[in-house]
Amino acid sequence: MALKSTIYKVKLQISDVDRGYYHAHQLTIALHPSETQERMMLRLLMFALHASPDLVFGKGISDDDEPDLWKKSDNGDIQLWIDLGQPDEKRIRRACGKAHQVVILSYGGATAERWWAKNQGRFQRFHNLEIVNAPVELSRQLATLADRNMALQCMISDGIWFGDDRQNVEVRLQHWKGRSQITPNF
What is the pLDDT of residues 25-71, one digit of tens each? Predict the structure, then answer.
């Protein structure tokens, strides 16, 4: 019998002063059986950083043809493709060919650093690609916020703060490649 996803309900209040985006989102997130809470919370962080009414969670882990998050235009063009982890060059090439902007959030400490060292030269040819890295300490801190029913806030103004009524986590991502116009200054 196949394991089922665990469902998380999230009330996410976003105050993005840099983009002038202020909105409360009611989200339902499925934690895939092979996914950690750490990864799920990184998906949620990327949602907050790129939030718009059209941004949705994709099938991600369970479907090779969909990213973790994406935003499509009314005519079906993919405006934004967001993946987490260390995707291979073929997946990135395919995403860059389909989407106007591709963002990869790498995480995993030394594993992520080896992936970047091995591939950074190959990734330079993709002009619509941005790669950022979440340090291990950040992803661990975000995982402590995970709960089946969450009420979270994300404040973006001269820095990023992500948290609940118990704790706030300062978000500091490392930019490894590019910086898009839709990615906030973090």
Answer: 999 999 998 899 999 999 999 999 999 999 999 976 656 789 999 99
- At 186, the pLDDT band (50, 70, 90 cuts) reads very low
In angstroms, what CA-CA distances link 57 with 40, 166, 178? 11, 26, 23
Q: Structurally, how many domains does the chain consist of? A: 1
**Within-domain flag for 185:** no
CA distance 182 to 18: 11
Give 50's contacts (C-beta < 8 A, 6+ positions apart): 69, 71, 80, 82, 103, 182, 183
Three-class SS state of 136: helix
CATH code of the domain containing 157:
3.10.640.10
Q: DSSP assignment, residue 17?
A: T
Cβ contact 14:23 at 8 Å: yes
Could you give the percent of the chain with pLDDT greater than 90? 85
Q: Does residue 127 fall inside a structural domain?
A: yes
pTM, 2 dp: 0.92
Question: Please, which residues have CB within 8 angstroms of residue 94's CB and are 6 or more apart in sequence?
Answer: none
Q: How many CB atoms lie within 10 A of CB 141?
A: 19
Distance, CA of 71 to CA of 79 (rounded, Å)? 5
